[in-house]
Amino acid sequence: MDKVKIAIKHLLVGHAYTLDGYTGVSVILFENGATAGACICGKATSTRQADGLQVDHIVNNVNAFLFTGGSAFGLDATGGVLKWLEEKGRGLPTKYGLVPVCPTAALFDIGFGSAKVRPDAEMAYRACENAKNDFCEVGSIGAGTGATVGKLFTVDGAMKGGFGSATVSSGKTVVQAFVACNGFGDVKDYKTGKIIAGAREKSESLKLADTMKCIEEGRIPKGFFVKKPENTVLMSVVTNARLSKAQCSKVAELSVEGLKKVMSPALAPMDGDVVFCASCGEETENVENLGKMAASAIADALICSIVNADGYGIVPAYKDLVSQK
After folding, report:
1. Nearest by Cα to 160 from 229, 221, 206
2. pTM
3. How many whole angstroms separate alpha carbon 153 and alpha carbon 261?
4. pLDDT digits (tens, 9 = 90+) for 70-115
5. Kind and range of the H or E element at 149?
6. DSSP code at position 43
7. Residue of 161, 167, 123 whose CA lies nearest to 27
8. In the chain, what are the helix, strand and coil shares in percent, each to the nearest 5?
9. Domain spanning 2-324: which CATH class is it, in words?
10. Burial, 56: exposed, middle or buried (Cβ in 10 Å; 0-12, 13-18, 19+)?
11. Bridge-partner residues for 36, per DSSP?
């Protein structure tokens, strides 16, 4: 697995996963807590404690974000993060003890490995124990273990997604993005416009089909547009700029432009795309500028998730396309 430097102080990232079912979790821990907001932009989302990120919600600070595989079943993994945080004395103070806050979002990976193997609390606790503040691993690891992209012709004709990260800086201000890429559409290199991972013409072929072109030409499998909430891009952006909860939500909203630059199509009706945004610093920066930085970081993080992916011999990955040339 490749590694990406963690560029923000008091931020830790950890993974845990299993190849017995090909699924996992990725946790982002805020040592001193963080102000956070969100943009729930997908129509097939699966979340827990995400309501705490609404602007008018009483909770102002979060202790962690969790991305998990296993679809709705994987949301049970949140309990492991809450247990770990409680043991560390972190959470919302109440008369009866601390209540940790960990907004969680799940992706649908149960079609890649075993549908019966799902992330649980023990796995998420282990991810917290594995969390580091210097580097985080990227590729088909953590919540990206069973992630795939380009599923017009089902997972059999898809390619491998994964977990990625990228950082954009301006002066002393830093925005770092973390993504688990499991989208319906293809992934494009926004600099060249070329597809680097996506739907393939046939399950035994490495020839890319171009999902948007197929849709425009009517080359769509029969019954495809029956609702299939099996795709999601989970995204988080973390900045050392000081933001209010409302400003975090605005940055999350603006950062979706990064997804649009890379995914084709982006924000499909069967995608459960989510962006969490956290502020854990004291730098000063214009919200619009932060939104642009966050969009760039997300676009680069998505590319990172693809170029470092491993297909585990089940579906091709980007590296298989490259080795063919």
Report:
1. 206
2. 0.95
3. 23
4. 999 999 999 999 999 999 999 999 999 999 999 999 999 998 988 8
5. strand 148-149
6. S
7. 123
8. 25, 35, 40
9. alpha beta
10. exposed
11. 278
Sheet holding 186-188, edge to edge: 195-197, 186-188, 263-264
36-76 pLDDT per residue, tens? 999 998 778 899 999 999 999 988 899 999 999 999 999 99
Question: How many CB atoms sit inside 10 A of residue 176's CB?
Answer: 28
Residues linked to residue 4 through DSSP beta bridges, in sequence order = 136
| CA atoms within 13 Å, Cβ hemisphere of 165 | 26
For 109: left if phi > 0, alpha if psi spans -120 to 50, otherwise beta; the answer is: alpha
Tokens 């001193």 found at: 32
Residue 309: phi, psi to the nearest 5?
-75, 155
How far is Cα 163 from Cα 143, in angstroms, rounded to an integer? Answer: 7
Locate 214 and state its tokens.
């197929």
**pLDDT tens track for 186-203:** 999 999 999 999 999 888
Taking phi over 0 as left and psi of -120 to 50 as alpha, with beta for the rest, 21 belongs to: left
**What is the Cα–Cα distance from 76 to 305, expressed in whole angstroms?**
25
Closest C-alpha to 35, from 1, 80, 65, 78: 65
- Would you say the C-alpha torsion 93, 36, 136, 4 has a positive or negative sign? negative
| C-alpha–C-alpha distance, residues 196 and 262, integer Å | 10
Rounded to whole angstroms, the Cα distance separating 231 from 288 reads 29
- Is the separation of the CB atoms in 84 and 131 below 8 Å? no
The pair of structure tokens assigned to 215 is 């849709």
For residue 227, count other CB atoms closer than 10 A to its CB.
9
Which string of b and e fits 117-133 if b means at least 16 CB within 10 Å? bbbbbebbbbbbebbee
Task: Name the residue ranges covered by the structural domains of the chain.
Answer: 2-324
